[in-house]
């Protein structure tokens, strides 16, 4: 039993023993005591001697979703060009930016007095709700009635790496546990033959925050995000060396098992028993992970629907993989697509650059939502889409020098994300920004509130999901005051 | 009996009376029951209540969350003595010594009224009766307060002498045996020689012993056989390589700068210094002084200056658009937290935003400590200035170091005369006629408070702005022009102003024949002697660099431009001055002169000075030194240098931890609680370092002993290495810890090797690691040390062990980081062209400590075995046991290559007999013969995998490699 | 007779003179007109002096009662003089105190006139005592005195100490406001709707008896005054007035009002308060019932319950408690049944949360080893499950017959299983089946359009069964109140070049 589980078990059983003894003395009767005591003294579930840290655990309260797919557009997509429709911007395109937006504000690149920039593509209504969205998302239109927008998101950071860390680990500096680690720490995972938290990257580069965005931080490394790769081993070191085929791998594992058991008889260290079960797990992991990550097995119409590109790294492949993993009970699938940092330099322009990136994700996302729905998975899978912050209504004026291309700078005051599945109200918009899309006007949602809402959807209370480290009960949503769960999103 | 109702009719008269008395008795019992908690059996209530042992855990667990350093509900706090024994907001006395009934604390914990009872229902259950009695008795006994154990200087504990103790070899054993006996256990017998030597060699050098060394030890029956091995291993060059790793975790050492780009920087000379210092058994106090204040030591050496690279392990954020001041302050805060975490195991980081929730540290004391470290020259810039060239050839190190020190002195000697001249020159300000700038930047003529004219730009100052000023000189000739760059109005020492770089300066005037001619300058001098780029570069037209204040301006700055020969102006004395600001960077505020003044002087001694002997000699010396330094092969390592006194920074409290909201200014100081004699308070970095390792400091020796203990036994005497505060776990054997701490500081004079020897020589360490049923239940995690340590190898040892056993290991030491095999596409940092090229030759099989350490993509097999990313100081690696670890040792090509190499060695020794070859391989790996059953299993595996090549007479390498793949994954192989 | 007539004239003259003087004083009084230091000083004596006349009058009354029994007449001249003088002194000091202002004008007015009357009657009684007067006149004046003094006392007390009766238990019984009183055509928003809400749900802790956070909501004046941390009404903005915002906080937030466990405000009541605040939160606001916004029209319906009927409430709680205990017992029993199975099979069963008895059967890790006869052994337990996932498994025949009877079955997933249409039909009687997943089960459209029953079915998944669009519509008509989800995928359009192109863009930072 490793250190941390033991530490938790001791503190858990110490407090819970006192709590339960008192509780049942207060007259809940022997029945309660026997079942809870059973759980307490290692008969089944959490505190059994060789507890598998990833065993499925009960959520704090009945959840709305069992699994989550997070689609993160690294670089921060421009909400004003896609979803947050602002007629004022069209009217004042090119005019100087009103001064009250500038003083007291700190920007990554803008200095001096920039001008307002209207979206470069037309908007038109979509779905029953008539929500105005950009024309460069043609397929997304078909699933808009499943989607709920939050247009009043806010964050504290306006640089990529710190902002991504704040969104995914609750803290702008490095060294903290990511959301996927927290959720697998809180709920374990349903399929013991696969990792509980898997990460898929596309767009050519890792997100700016690097691997820390899916690190287990101070939580035990068993909760680390496992990155899937499109070339070579789908999971690092999954495949056997060429000299060893599956049959001899089985024989090797049996031999190791025999010798280790004899060693255990001699020395009696429980860690040896845990190592025996972990080696057994690798055999099943190899079989199940290879199968799960092999998209060739999908029928033709699915490949066409997603627009996949087998054998190469692509967002479409990752969306199909996400559905296959979620279908097999993986708890948290995190996708990163890099290339959304449209400052206007080189390829990263708000007009063609944004349109090109939208084409890469439009079809796969629409196909993913429909595929989940037709399989009955959408009801208990939460899909979240978004970036680490927004982009400014003003045109980028890098170092005070006007450039001929169209770009927007980083903007932490207001941005848009959307959610689907898990009983989220379809065709609904939560929160509004001012006519220029600069400040949030109604129902602000801080990144911490979003994290608390996601945990809530999975049946976890962000206050109770904590881990003792450096003298504090660390939490995903920070140790300050409890954030505000937005219940309004759920039907 | 009384409570059993019996039919009245049949009983005798006296019985009836007693029955009549029943209701009365029942009533009485009922009354006593509900008046107050019943007295627990006095057995469990200790005689005298000690605050630290009994009371503080109750308070920390139930109260300090709301009544602590941060949240003081009702102005009640149990952190500081005066507050705990003082009055609450409601005016009631929280704790009245000797009078529990008059103490509000006691009334609240025993009150039946749910609204008043503490802890409130929402936060937890009422205190247990025992806890209540403890608090009551403590108050009755005068409520004497004790500071937390870790903040009291260790007192030498009496060494216990357990009865008929034949087991103990030294004092450690006596302390341990007392604890073992107290829990009704008995120590294990000594481990067998092979296992003991394997454990000892791995613990001290990180490598397994060879077969020869094992056999030599087994056959050596002299009484000091074991001690000889200990001394041999302590003297081994591999000692430093193994023990550097936990220190590099604390120092957060990496080969890259961190954050988004996370690009490479030369830090490896510092890693080599740590290894050499540990091998030379440098006393820990000197080890501390060199790293914390090496640059300030009176007669410092090259190594002392190199050691200060310890601080520069902080991350540098060069992501586009980041604010260098913000991330410099982040580094200063990280350095301060790391000193506390790496030397004293205290979570000082909490105190950045508010006073400590559990321990007595105020927010002010946090920033006073950060002030020690907030005056270094580095400023989160891409070129990692300041750097120090460290010679590769050890013989040349001191020489190169001395040259660089001399160069700094020469620069001083060169600039000091000009600075003196400039200071006492009566500069005549020019009168400006017109001023304008390019790129529609507004340049206006204004006056400062003293009424002196100056030039001020508007808010928008893009990169490449060129200022042109038409002015007239009050004097008809001039030999030098002075430019004063003034701090912008809204900037202050608290939040410094934007940067400026004067790329090129030109002055035009009308000569005798009426043409407009530009002035020829001889040299430029600024107010700072040792600068990143020399001010004279402002005279070179093509060079964008020049005189600058970068990346932030903290003070008004000045520079003087000396003309070749005096310039005579015609009667209207007009000059046109053009200032080019061509340098740029990817931040928001571009480096442009925003607020400046121009003045001239006509003294001839500017030119005279240039011919003076002192200047000429200084210039010559400078040329020679620069040349000599260049032709010694060296690596430039980021180090710490203090800013020159008249450019020093100030430190302020951050209101709620926000660097933009500055509270009042503070000067360097150490928290008072850790100072017994307030008079000798440390005031600078060198005194702080001395305090850290003086016997004033109750924490350093204990923390250092504890972390060495954890490396050997798997669990520290204080299990939470990172938190010695009241929220951490209490020591399992404080007497032992204090004894070792005082000995380490005293007799052993901070010698790490002597400390390790003291521990490994103990019988406690030498016990066998077998775990009996009873011990598994009574002491599952071996806290009472009733058996020898048994733990999985660290990430580095897993690799080194496999390489050594299979004969692939290269023992080459030191040098640039190497790149053993790693699957591709692991490195995908944004905007970073660096790629992982697997090293060739012996560099591919170097020890793990030399592996290239990239923060945002740590070597994957290390991460899987719990290695930290080293973004932050990590005192303890929490071991885990996961299937992904199994995948590494089963399938990683590095480990399969070891299996094949071991097979090759085994076949060379026993070409025909598979069973002999297997026994050979087993002995190489585990240093002992396989048991018959194990040999049988391995042989069975060998024959199964032979398949077609069966009985070809020779041992098949592929099959033996498969057997070795199993061998190198055995639990016994992966643990020590 | 001469003497008696003279006495009579003298009495009426002096009495009327006194009455006129007092009357003039009373009418000329205006609250808070001017307050010189002297008047504040003298006003300060009012509380001291005013109790004396009350005491004296009571003594006189007691003596007269006593005398009734003994038939003896008593000489009360001195007492009446004392009463008159002290009442005049208290009237004067009261007059000055009144000048300070800050009192409820209506109450002060009543107090003023009753005090004036009392002073006048005291003088008259004294005069009657001095001059020979009939016993009946004296008795009459005594009773007038008693009435006026008690009135003056009552109003004075009301002004300073508030209405003692307000704390009376029969008044404070919240149930009194359980049902909203009948509202006529005209709706006085505060009196008819807002005040009853506050009385029913807030005043028990924010009223005269208990002033939590020193905030009272029982009267309009007190609402305006607000509590310890400031006013509860900010401008006409419902989103910033804490009176309303604290009721909208999430339940676990400790600022949430009414506190957990107490009856909460529902949307309708919140809408009413929001409307009231938005329209100036004034007392005079009256609007015809037709103009009441739809958001709280429901409150106009006679018999609208503000508080649940205690009897019903107690029953509901009891039922809930009993249900909870049953659930705990059922969970414990199910848990012990599960524990009897080998661990890998036991882990197929999980509860929905940490306390309830909703059980799910979702084998994922064990899908490979779950043969149909192993499944058979688990049937009794599966029968107790709410959600059953049998996808990708080979199913025993007895399964459907059993599932048809199961009460707890709500969500059944049979995707990618081989099942016969006959077996499926037996499921049609399942009482609570709401969600049925038949994705990729090679079902024919005929069966779907002919299947009977499934009356509680809400969602049906029939994708990847090769069912054409037209058949899908016919299935939809066959299952009118069920959402039927068929194939959902995007057609591959020729022009889309779907390959992703990433040359290594030297993007910006």
From TrEMBL, chain A:
Any Pfam family the entry gives: DUF1501
Alphabetized PANTHER family for the sequence: BLL7424 PROTEIN, DUF1501 DOMAIN-CONTAINING PROTEIN
Protein's recorded name: DUF1501 domain-containing protein
Organism: Pelagicoccus mobilis
């Amino acid at each position: 039993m490793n250190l941390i589980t033991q530490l938790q078990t001791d503190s858990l059983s110490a407090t819970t023993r006192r709590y339960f003894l008192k509780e049942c003395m207060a007259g809940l009767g022997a029945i309660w005591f026997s079942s809870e005591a059973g759980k307490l003294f290692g008969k089944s579930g959490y505190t059994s001697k060789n507890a598998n840290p990833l065993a499925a655990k009960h959520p704090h309260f009945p959840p709305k979703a069992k699994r989550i797919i997070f689609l993160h557009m690294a670089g921060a997509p421009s909400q004003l060009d896609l979803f947050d429709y602002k007629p004022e911007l069209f009217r004042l395109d090119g005019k100087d930016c009103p001064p009250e937006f500038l003083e007291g504000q700190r920007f990554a690149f803008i200095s001096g007095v920039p001008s307002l920039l209207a979206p470069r593509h037309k908007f038109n209504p979509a779905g029953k709700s008539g929500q105005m969205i950009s024309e460069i998302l043609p397929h997304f239109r078909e699933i808009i009635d499943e989607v709920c927008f939050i247009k009043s998101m806010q964050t504290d950071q306006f640089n990529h790496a710190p902002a991504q860390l704040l969104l995914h680990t609750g803290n702008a500096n490095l060294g903290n546990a990511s959301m996927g680690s927290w959720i697998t720490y809180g709920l374990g995972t349903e399929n013991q033959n696969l990792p509980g938290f898997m990460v898929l990257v596309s767009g050519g580069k890792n997100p700016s925050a690097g691997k820390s965005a899916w690190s287990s931080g101070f939580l035990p490394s068993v909760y680390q995000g496992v990155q899937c790769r499109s070339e070579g081993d789908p999971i690092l070191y999954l495949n056997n060396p060429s000299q060893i085929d599956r049959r001899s791998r089985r024989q090797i594992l049996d031999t190791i098992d025999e010798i280790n058991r004899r060693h255990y008889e001699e020395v009696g260290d429980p860690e040896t028993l845990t190592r025996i079960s972990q080696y057994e797990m690798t055999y099943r992991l190899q079989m199940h992970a290879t199968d799960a990550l092999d998209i060739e097995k999908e029928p033709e119409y699915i490949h066409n629907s997603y627009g996949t590109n087998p054998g190469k790294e692509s967002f479409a492949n990752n969306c199909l993989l996400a559905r296959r993993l979620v279908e097999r009970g993986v708890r948290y699938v995190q996708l990163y697509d890099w290339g959304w940092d449209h400052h206007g330099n080189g390829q990263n322009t708000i007009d063609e650059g944004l349109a090109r990136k939208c084409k890469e994700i439009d079809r796969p996302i629409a196909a993913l939502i429909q595929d989940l729905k037709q399989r009955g998975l959408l009801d208990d899978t939460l899909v979240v889409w978004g970036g680490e912050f927004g982009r400014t209504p003003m045109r980028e004026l890098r170092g005070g020098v006007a450039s001929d291309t169209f770009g927007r700078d980083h903007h932490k005051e207001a941005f848009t994300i959307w959610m689907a599945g898990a009983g989220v109200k379809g065709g609904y918009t939560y929160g509004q920004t001012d006519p220029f899309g600069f400040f949030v006007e109604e129902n602000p949602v801080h990144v911490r509130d979003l994290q608390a809402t996601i945990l809530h959807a999975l049946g976890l209370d962000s206050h109770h999901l904590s881990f003792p480290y450096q003298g504090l009960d660390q939490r995903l949503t920070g140790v300050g005051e409890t954030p505000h769960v937005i219940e309004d999103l759920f039907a | 009996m009384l409570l059993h109702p019996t039919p009245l009719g049949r009983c005798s008269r006296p019985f009836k009376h007693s029955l009549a008395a029943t209701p009365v008795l029942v009533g009485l019992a009922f009354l006593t029951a509900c008046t107050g908690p019943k007295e627990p059996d006095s057995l469990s209530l200790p005689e005298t209540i000690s605050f630290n042992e009994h009371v503080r855990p109750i308070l920390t667990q139930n109260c300090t969350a709301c009544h602590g350093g941060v949240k003081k509900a009702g102005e009640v706090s149990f952190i500081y003595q005066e507050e705990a024994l003082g009055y609450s907001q409601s005016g009631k006395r929280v704790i009245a010594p000797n009078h529990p009934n008059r103490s509000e604390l006691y009334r609240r914990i025993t009150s039946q009224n749910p609204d008043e009872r503490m802890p409130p229902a929402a936060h937890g259950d009422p205190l247990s009766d025992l806890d209540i009695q403890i608090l009551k008795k403590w108050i009755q006994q005068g409520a004497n307060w004790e500071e937390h154990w870790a903040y009291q200087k260790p007192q030498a504990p009496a060494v216990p002498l357990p009865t008929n103790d034949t087991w103990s070899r030294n004092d450690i054993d006596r302390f341990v045996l007392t604890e073992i006996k107290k829990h009704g256990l008995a120590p294990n017998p000594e481990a067998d020689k092979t296992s003991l030597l394997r454990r000892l060699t791995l613990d001290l050098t990180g490598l397994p012993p060879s077969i020869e060394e094992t056999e030599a030890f087994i056959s050596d029956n002299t009484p000091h056989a074991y001690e000889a091995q200990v001394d041999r291993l302590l003297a081994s060059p591999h000692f430093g390589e193994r023990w550097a790793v936990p220190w590099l975790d604390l120092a957060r050492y990496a080969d890259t700068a961190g954050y988004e780009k996370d690009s490479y920087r030369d830090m490896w000379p510092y890693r080599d210094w740590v290894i050499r210092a540990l091998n030379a058994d440098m006393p820990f106090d000197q080890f501390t002084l060199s790293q914390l204040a090496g640059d300030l030591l009176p007669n410092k050496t090259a190594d002392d200056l190199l050691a200060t690279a310890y601080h520069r392990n902080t991350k540098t954020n060069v992501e586009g658009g980041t604010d260098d001041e913000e991330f410099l302050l982040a580094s200063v805060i990280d350095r301060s937290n790391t000193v506390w975490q790496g030397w004293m195991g205290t979570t000082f980081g909490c105190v950045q935003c508010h006073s400590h929730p559990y321990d007595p540290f105020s927010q002010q004391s946090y920033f006073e400590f950060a002030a020690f470290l907030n005056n270094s020259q580095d400023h989160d810039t891409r070129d990692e200035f300041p750097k120090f060239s460290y010679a590769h050839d050890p013989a040349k190190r001191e020489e190169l170091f001395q040259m660089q020190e001399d160069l700094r002195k020469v620069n001083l000697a060169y600039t000091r005369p000009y600075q003196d001249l400039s200071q006492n020159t009566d500069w005549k300000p020019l009168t400006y006629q017109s001023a304008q700038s390019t790129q529609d930047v507004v340049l206006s003529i204004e006056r400062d408070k003293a009424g002196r004219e100056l030039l001020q730009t508007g808010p928008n100052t893009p990169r490449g702005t060129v200022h042109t000023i038409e002015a007239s000189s009050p004097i008809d000739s001039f030999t030098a022009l002075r430019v004063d760059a003034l701090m912008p109005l809204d900037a202050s020492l608290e939040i410094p102003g934007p940067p400026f770089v004067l790329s090129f300066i030109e002055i035009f005037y009308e000569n005798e024949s009426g043409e407009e001619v530009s002035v020829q300058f001889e040299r430029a001098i600024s107010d700072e002697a040792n600068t990143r780029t020399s001010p004279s570069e402002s005279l070179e037209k093509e060079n964008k660099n020049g005189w600058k204040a970068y990346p932030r301006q903290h003070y008004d700055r000045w520079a003087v431009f000396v003309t070749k020969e005096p310039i005579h102006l015609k009667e209207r004395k007009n000059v046109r001055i053009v200032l080019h600001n061509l340098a740029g960077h990817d931040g928001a505020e571009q480096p442009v002169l925003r607020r400046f003044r121009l003045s001239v002087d006509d003294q001839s001694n500017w030119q005279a000075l240039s011919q003076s002997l002192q200047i000429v000699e200084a210039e010559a010396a400078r040329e020679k030194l620069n040349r000599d330094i260049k032709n010694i092969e060296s690596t430039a390592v980021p180090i710490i240098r203090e800013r020159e006194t008249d450019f020093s920074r100030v430190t302020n409290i951050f209101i709620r931890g926000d660097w933009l909201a500055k509270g009042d200014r503070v000067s360097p100081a150490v928290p008072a609680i850790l100072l017994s004699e307030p008079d000798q308070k440390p005031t600078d970095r060198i005194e702080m370092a001395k305090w850290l390792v003086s016997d004033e400091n109750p924490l350093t020796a204990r923390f250092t002993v504890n972390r060495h203990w954890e490396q050997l036994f798997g669990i520290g005497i204080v299990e939470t290495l990172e938190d010695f505060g009241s929220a951490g776990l209490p020591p399992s054997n404080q007497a032992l810890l204090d004894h070792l701490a005082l000995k380490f500081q005293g007799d052993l004079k901070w010698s790490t090797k002597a400390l390790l020897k003291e521990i490994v020589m103990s019988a406690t360490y030498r016990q066998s690691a077998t775990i009996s049923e009873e011990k598994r239940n009574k002491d599952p995690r071996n806290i009472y040390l009733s058996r020898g340590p048994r733990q999985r190898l660290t990430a580095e040892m897993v690799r080194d062990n496999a390489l050594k056993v299979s004969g692939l290991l290269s023992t080459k030491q030191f040098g640039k980081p190497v790149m053993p095999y790693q699957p591709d596409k692991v490195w995908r940092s944004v905007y970073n062209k660096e790629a992982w090229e697997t090293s060739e030759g012996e560099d591919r099989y170097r020890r793990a400590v030399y592996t290239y350490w990239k923060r945002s993509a740590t070597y994957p097999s290390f991460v899987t075995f719990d290695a930290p990313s080293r973004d932050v100081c990590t005192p303890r690696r929490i071991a885990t046991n996961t299937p992904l670890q199994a995948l590494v040792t089963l399938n990683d090509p590095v480990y399969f290559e070891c299996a094949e190499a071991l097979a090759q060695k085994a076949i060379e020794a026993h070409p025909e007999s598979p069973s002999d070859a297997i026994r050979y391989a087993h002995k190489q790996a585990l240093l002992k013969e396989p048991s018959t059953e194990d040999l049988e299993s391995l042989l069975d595996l060998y024959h199964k995998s032979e398949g077609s090549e069966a009985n070809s007479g020779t041992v098949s390498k592929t099959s033996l490699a498969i057997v070795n793949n199993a061998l190198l994954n055995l639990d016994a192989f992966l643990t020590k | 007779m001469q003497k008696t007539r003279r006495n009579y004239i003298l009495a009426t003259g002096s009495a009327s003179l006194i009455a006129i003087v007092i009357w003039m004083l009373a009418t000329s009084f205006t609250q808070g007109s001017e307050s010189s230091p002297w008047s504040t000083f003298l006003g300060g004596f009012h509380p001291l002096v005013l109790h004396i006349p009350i005491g004296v009058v009571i003594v006189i009354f007691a003596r007269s009662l006593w005398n009734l029994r003994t038939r003896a007449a008593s000489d009360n001249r001195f007492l009446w003089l004392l009463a008159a003088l002290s009442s005049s002194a208290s009237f004067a000091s009261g007059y000055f105190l009144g000048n300070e202002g800050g009192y409820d004008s209506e109450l002060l007015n009543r107090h003023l006139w009753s005090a004036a009357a009392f002073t006048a009657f005291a003088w008259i009684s004294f005069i009657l005592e001095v001059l020979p007067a009939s016993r009946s006149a004296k008795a009459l004046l005594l009773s007038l005195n008693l009435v006026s003094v008690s009135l003056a006392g009552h109003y004075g007390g009301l002004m300073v100490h508030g209405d003692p009766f307000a704390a009376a238990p029969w008044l404070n019984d919240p149930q009194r406001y359980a049902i909203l009183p009948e509202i006529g055509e005209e709706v006085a928003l505060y009196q008819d709707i807002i005040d009853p809400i506050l009385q029913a749900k807030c005043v028990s802790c924010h009223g005269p008896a208990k002033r939590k956070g020193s905030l009272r909501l029982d009267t309009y004046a007190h609402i305006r005054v607000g509590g310890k941390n400031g006013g509860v009404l900010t401008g006409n903005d419902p989103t910033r007035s804490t009176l309303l915002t604290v009721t909208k906080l999430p339940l676990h937030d400790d600022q949430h009002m009414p506190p957990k466990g107490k009856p909460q405000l529902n949307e309708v009541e919140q809408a009413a308060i929001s409307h009231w605040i938005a329209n100036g939160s004034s007392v005079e606001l009256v609007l015809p019932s037709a103009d009441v916004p739809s958001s709280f029209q429901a409150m106009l319906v006679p018999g609208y319950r503000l508080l649940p009927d205690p009897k019903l409430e107690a029953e509901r709680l009891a039922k809930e408690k009993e249900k909870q205990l049953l659930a705990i017992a059922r969970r414990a029993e199910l848990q012990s049944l599960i524990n009897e199975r080998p661990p890998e099979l036991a882990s197929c069963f999980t509860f929905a949360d940490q306390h309830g008895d909703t059980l799910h059967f979702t084998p994922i890790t064990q899908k490979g080893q779950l043969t149909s006869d192993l499944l058979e052994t688990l049937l009794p337990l599966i029968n107790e499950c709410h959600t059953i996932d049998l996808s990708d498994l080979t199913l025993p025949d007895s399964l459907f017959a059993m599932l048809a009877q199961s009460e707890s079955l709500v969500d059944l997933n049979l995707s990618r299983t081989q099942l016969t249409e006959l077996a499926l039909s037996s499921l049609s009687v399942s009482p609570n089946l709401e969600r049925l997943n038949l994705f990729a089960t090679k079902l024919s459209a005929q069966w779907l359009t002919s299947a009977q029953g499934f009356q509680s079915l809400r969602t049906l998944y029939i994708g990847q069964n090769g069912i054409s669009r037209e058949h899908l519509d016919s299935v939809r008509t066959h299952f009118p109140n069920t959402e039927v989800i068929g194939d959902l995928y995007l057609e591959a359009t020729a022009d889309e070049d779907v390959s992703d192109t990433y040359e290594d863009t030297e993007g910006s930072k």
